[in-house]
Amino acid sequence: MNVKKFTAPTSREALRKVREALGPDAVILSNRPVDGVVEILALDNDDVASLASPSAASSMDAPPPQLHMPHQELAAEPAPRAPIARQFDDAMAAREAMVARNFQNAPAFQEPAFHAAPAARQPLHPMHPMDEPMVPAAHSYAERRAAAAPAAPAPAFDMAAMTAMMSAAIAQAKESAANAAAAEMSGMMSEIRAMRGMMESQLAELSWGSTQQREPQKAVVLREMLAAGFSASLSRYLIDKMPANKDAADAMRWIKTVLARNLTTMADEDAILDRGGVFALVGPTGVGKTTTTAKLAARCVMRHGPDKLALITTDAYRIGGHEQLRIYGKILGVMVHSVKDEADLRIALKELRNKHTVLIDTIGMSQRDQMVAEQVAMLTESGANVQRLLCLNATSTNETLNEVVRAYQGSGLAGCIMTKMDEAASIGNVLDIVIRQKLNMYYVSNGQRVPEDLHLADRAMLVDRAFRARRDSANQLSDADLPLMMAGLGNLNHDRSLREVYVG
After folding, report:
1. What's the rounded Cα separation, in Å, for the pair 170 and 164?
2. Residue pair 441/480 in contact by the 8 Å Cβ criterion
3. Could you tell me the domains of the chain?
4. What is the pLDDT of residues 244-277, one digit of tens each?
5. Is 277 left (phi over 0), alpha (psi -120 to 50) or beta?
6. How far apart are CA 347 and CA 369, in angstroms?
7. Are 14 and 63 in contact (CB under 8 A)?
8. For FRET with 20, which of 131, 174, 368, 503 sits at 20 to 30 Å CA-CA?
9. How many alpha carbons fall within 13 Å on the CB side of residue 443?
10. Of 502, 498, 503, 499, nearest to 232 (Cα)?
11. pLDDT per residue over 101-117, tens digit each?
């Protein structure tokens, strides 16, 4: 028995090769796809006819049963057939031979144009319902069992590609799990922070409520500080640090002493008038920079003469902005130089380096303007040691003054000047910012007269002035409002501006 193997891209092409090699009566043993091609195992009809079935009386026809027969031997060895079954097989074989002869005489099948034309046309064969050619049945039981044997396993996969694919899938799964864990952790931390803030607020409210009952004088001092314009955080911080067993009068004296001790002021005018240097007055619009510059210029002229002073203005945007300073300069006999950018400022300062004092009046702009940073950079990189003095408007609120200091601070401020003190109902807001931001207060301006309305900053006078201002009793906070206000502050340990407040 000679079994032959035929391979082709399609089943039709493989059957054509079988028909050309073995004839139309060839017996197909197997038909399966292998590595992208179709493989057919076929046997010549003459070889099949030479096979003889064993007699019914022989031991080969009815072999003894085996309890542990391997699966391969069970698939290869045919079971004993009854005479009726053999007759049925012979009838089926005859019928299949007749069908094959009918198909052999059928007209040739014309393949589609998109297929490669075969070398010789093949007869039309019956097609399987799934467009696969029908495999002729074997003529014997052994051939039928061989044809019905399970197909060979699928071709092996590319292990390197499979490993890379699995590694990528595992990495993606790990990344997704890490992102999900990070998001969950972030949400958990947010919830914990919210719970901590709520607990701190409730504890602060309970603590202040009990403190208010035990030491009512602290509530009196707290209301006075809030009415003077000091922030709630600084007021509560000092109240918490205040020694116990003090009456209201002693508590107020202790508060004023601590506030005066934490105020940094200029002892005398030698820091500016005698030492000299380059000073630039900066600040938002309308805080009185030009008038304060004229007041300082008048003090310098009275001490050193007009030849030792120079005035520079950068206010080229406001209509008539530089004319106001020119009028002051003409009265004082001082030349006023106008600059537009950093290059002009460098040239002007280089030409005026022999002057004892140079005062720069800068253009006013909102603290939220992006040009504030450019102005600070221009003064810092001008090539000279420009000391910036920030003008703080006493009529502004704590929040506004905080924004102004943060915007104009840059690499550091030499000091500040309180302006419009005569227009403010209370000055505790400015003192609060000076204490918390650790600024050095040079002068206090309380009017438009040049140069009379410019005074050195006196710590004791400023603190006393903050608490002596008249306040409407309708705006005073009640005892019931104080616990709610203290609860909204949370934990004061997170406020860095209060860490350097010295309480003695």
Report:
1. 10
2. no
3. 3-58+66-147 (no CATH), 264-456 (3.40.50.300)
4. 777 778 888 888 999 999 888 887 777 778 888 8
5. left
6. 26
7. no
8. 131
9. 26
10. 498
11. 655 555 554 444 444 44
